[in-house]
Amino acid sequence: MHTDLVAALDIGGTKIAGALVDGGGRIRLRTRRPTPAREDAETVMGAVESVLGELSGSPLWARTRAVGIGSAGPVDASAGTVSPVNVPGWRDFPLVSRVRRAVGGLPVELVGDGAAMTAAEHWQGAARGYANALCLVVSTGVGGGLVIGGKLYPGPTGNAGHIGHISVDLDGDLCPCGARGCVERIASGPNIARRALAGGWRPGPDGDSSAAAVAVAARAGDPFAVASFERAAQALAAGIAATATLIEIEIAVVGGGVAGAGDVLFGPLRRHLREYATLSFVRRLTVAPALTGTDAGLVGAAAAALLGTAR
């Protein structure tokens, strides 16, 4: 029985999670800290070191062979740096070298959070057994990652598959990235909520104006909520179809908070996909909800570490 473990870090704007993960993808120990996202670079790194300190204090640490990091992006895996949009204190922050120093020189692998979720879904989730897959994270933003020829394809810097910034509306709204009509600008949770409110949807007595609340309203038949999810699904379908046409993916796996809307999202998504994925070689494309849930970042970071140690 293979007893080696890998350490995994899942770094985002809200939390820094850490785990020790075995070769079967099982989490043996976990910990987390809130991300001090508004603080300076060293304060954020201090939270990472605190998570690593708790992991390395465990008797299991002696079996740990490598560290995998899935981080909010942009990341630059070739340089070992991260510049998460929602952690302003980190710009070109040398995360790989700092983590390596904190763990006594173990190998460290860095991927973006979209690639981490993709690695998790290919290893343990809905993309398991597929040689060519696109996995999407639809939440505050829209990220993604690719599996090509049975292997995670992070690209040179770790950002390949970033479907959120494919333009699907040539004259659309300006996206914060600088382009127009990006998938993210239409399909992310905050943009689903923004569009529903602009159309005339009103939150209930609790004042919840999140995309999850819009999903509840859509399920109850509110026309403005339904229309906002319809538009989001159309944007996602156009981006997925473009990706499939380019590289012949067999499955698109959709995770993230917005995927929790269930049929409110997946119904119109599958319908619109039939309209966009029309060529013979993309017509059999499957769409499935992600299976690895909130642990996707940790399981995917572990997968990246295992892939790194296998090279």
TrEMBL record:
Cited PROSITE patterns: ROK (PS01125)
SUPFAM superfamilies per the UniProt record, alphabetical: Actin-like ATPase domain
UniProt superkingdom: Bacteria
InterPro entries referenced in this protein's UniProt entry, alphabetically: ATPase_NBD, ROK, ROK_cs
UniProt cross-references to Pfam families, sorted A to Z: ROK
Similarity-based family: Belongs to the ROK (NagC/XylR) family.
Protein name, UniProt field: ROK family protein
Source organism phylogeny: Bacteria, Bacillati, Actinomycetota, Actinomycetes, Kitasatosporales
